[in-house]
Design brief:
The protein is α/β, with parallel strands linked by helices. It has ten helices and nine strands. The protein has a single domain, classed as Vaccinia Virus protein VP39 (Rossmann fold, 3-Layer(aba) Sandwich), CATH 3.40.50.150. The strands form two sheets. Strands 3-2-1-4-5-9-8 form a seven-stranded mixed beta sheet, sandwiched between helices.
Length: 257
């Protein structure tokens, strides 16, 4: 199975279904960003600390696997020179729709977050990567590619799932029970039954992968980054797991000068 192709089309479908990560920002949010008052999300609820981003004016920013008309337009309105790369054509069309609506300038690129060869070395000052690497089977190339594409002193802001998120039986969780079922690293491809995978294909749902903290954080360090910031987040929607542990992590990594 071609995971990239399947998940690309699946996220086109998610955009049509109104997934929260596919809803473009409002004109009000864009206007606030033009006046220097803005926030972006790497994880569902907690905004990125201002000192992780600022200043963004005239900075070259790559919004990585970050289509959907959210981070890209906000940063463009704040004065950044923005490129958005995403695997979903529908998500990128949302960015272009907001850009046209608000008369913003940004570039969109259809591509794989683990392969940034279309960008020369030292291309960007900042890379913004919201929760998305759960949709690729191997996250390690992402960190290496980000390191190559960033300028010296450049910043990588990344959000990802706490791997424990993938350990529990989804069916039981829906019934109010948290019970460990799966080991880490997790993969829908190897952990789901044949019947379950057929349902994913039928419903055009994206396949997910739960990467270990070694791969999420340790491999950022192995790629050459220095970790400068860290926070945790929850869904914030009252789901069962929110009562017990933060399901998301965000990191700020810097390419050494």
């Amino acid at each position: 199975m071609n995971i990239y192709k399947h998940n690309s089309l699946a996220w086109d479908t998610e955009a049509k279904r109104g997934n929260p990560w596919t809803k473009p920002v409002s004109s009000k949010e864009v206007e606030l960003a033009r006046n220097g008052k803005f926030r972006i999300l790497l994880t569902p609820a907690k905004p990125v600390p201002a000192d992780w981003l600022l200043p963004v004016k005239n900075k070259k920013v790559l919004c990585l696997a970050s289509g959907g008309g959210q981070q890209g337009p906000i940063l463009a309105a704040a004065g950044a020179k923005v490129t958005v790369l995403d695997a979903s054509k529908q998500q990128l069309e949302a960015d272009m729709a907001v850009a046209k609506r608000e008369r913003l300038t940004l570039i969109t690129v259809l591509g794989d977050m683990a392969d940034l060869r279309c960008f020369p070395k030292n291309s960007f000052d900042i890379i913004v990567n919201p929760v998305s690497n759960c949709f690729i089977p191997d996250v390690r190339p992402v960190w290496r590619e980000c390191f190559r594409a960033l300028k010296k002193g450049g910043r990588l802001l990344s959000g990802f799932n706490n791997p424990i998120f993938y350990c529990f039986d989804r069916g039981l969780e829906a019934k109010g029970v948290l019970q460990v079922k799966y080991s880490l690293p997790y993969s829908d491809i190897t952990s789901l039954t044949v019947k379950e995978k057929k349902e994913f294909l039928k419903n055009k749902e994206p396949f997910e992968f739960g990467h270990t903290l070694q791969d999420q954080i340790g491999e950022q360090l192995a790629a050459g980054f220095s970790l400068r910031g860290f926070y945790e987040d929850k869904w914030g929607n009252g789901c069962l797991a929110d009562k017990y542990f933060p399901q998301f992590i965000a990191t700020l990594a810097v390419k050494g000068t």
